[in-house]
Design a protein that fits this description.
By secondary structure, this protein is mainly alpha-helical. Helix content is about 45%, strand content about 5%. Strands 1-2 form a two-stranded antiparallel sheet. A two-stranded antiparallel sheet has the order 3-4. The chain is globular. The structure holds iron/sulfur cluster.
């Protein structure tokens, strides 16, 4: 059985958010403004936080399977810059048009995503007037949001309002919207692969066996939301875990990150994610004790 050591969770993630707040280590050079793809790429002619920007950000975030994929945001920005009719609320592009555009702008997404993209756009337009902030109206947590979306879908005979977008994506989008607008929502840090990796490699997960990542997400989300309240006033710190994972954990093997990683002394190093033998996808479980790659290798 695997359990979550809540005290250790608070200690480790408090260290990360505090380092961001105080601009220590990796955060002395990297922050949300200069490294988040949502900040680096924006379609031409838009101002950060205006209605069209929020609309675009919603459509790209819901297509983002890797959480903040730079290439995806860059290519989506180009596509919308040169095809401004895509911003039109109520306009439904055809499969043929979107297939051609995705190909032209080198947007490589899994099979079925083009249809999903169109459905998500249609539903954002039809049920929320093209305003993503309305998605989060009258709900405070991801669980409440999922119930709300399911009810709207059922009442309108729709199978899924935002196909392909799951809890992690709704937290990611809430994270973006909370930085750009007034959004009263609690779950604004996605429990993404980096958070999952950190809880494994820092011993927050205790015990033996396997835990499904969706179960883990459910366990961690309230802890993260509660802890993050302390740091909510510190703009950008919501990106801290992602920046740490993307720019440090990714390079931890072979590079000396002892002076830049805020939790270096508490972490065993990046942990190995196992791939499914048949599909080559990640297994969707985290095993404890995990296999670690080790940190700095001389
Ligand atoms: S020690 Fe390495 S793997 Fe662990 S949090 Fe720091 S950078 Fe990531």
């Amino acid at each position: 059985m695997i359990t979550v050591n809540k005290t250790r969770f608070r200690k480790i993630f408090r260290l990360i958010f505090t380092a961001y707040k105080e601009k220590n280590g990796i955060f002395s050079t990297l922050n949300a403004e200069n490294s988040g793809p949502q900040k680096l790429y924006i379609p031409k002619g838009l101002s950060s936080g205006d209605n069209k920007h929020l609309y675009w950000l919603t459509l790209v975030a819901m297509s983002d399977r890797r959480t903040n994929s730079r290439v995806l945001y860059r290519n989506f920005a180009s596509m919308f810059s040169e095809n401004t009719h895509l911003f039109t609320v109520g306009f439904s592009p055809s499969i043929v048009e979107m297939t051609q555009l995705f190909r032209q702008y080198q947007i490589a997404l899994p099979v079925g995503e083009i249809k999903f993209f169109i459905q998500r756009k249609n539903h954002l337009d039809d049920f929320f007037g093209g305003d993503p902030r309305k998605i989060y109206e009258h709900v405070l947590t991801v669980d409440e949001l999922i119930i709300k979306l399911k009810k709207i879908a059922k009442d309108n005979g729709v199978e899924n309002l935002f196909p392909g977008a799951k809890r992690k994506i709704f937290s990611l989008l809430a994270m973006f919207l909370s930085e750009l607008s007034e959004l009263d929502f609690i779950d604004i840090i996605p429990i993404d692969v980096w958070v999952q990796a950190i809880v494994s490699s820092t011993g927050i997960l205790k015990g033996n066996g396997c835990i499904n990542v969706s179960t883990l997400e459910k366990e961690l989300r309230p802890l993260m939301s509660k802890l993050y309240k302390e740091f909510r006033g510190n703009t950008g710190s919501v990106n801290a875990t992602w920046i740490l994972g993307r720019y440090q954990c990714n390079r931890c093997v072979g590079s000396d990150v002892s002076n830049t990683c805020p939790i270096y002394n508490h972490c065993k190093g990046p942990f190995t994610r196992h791939r499914h033998a048949v599909s080559s996808k990640h297994l969707g479980v985290i095993s404890v004790p995990s296999a670690f790659k080790g940190k700095f290798v001389k």
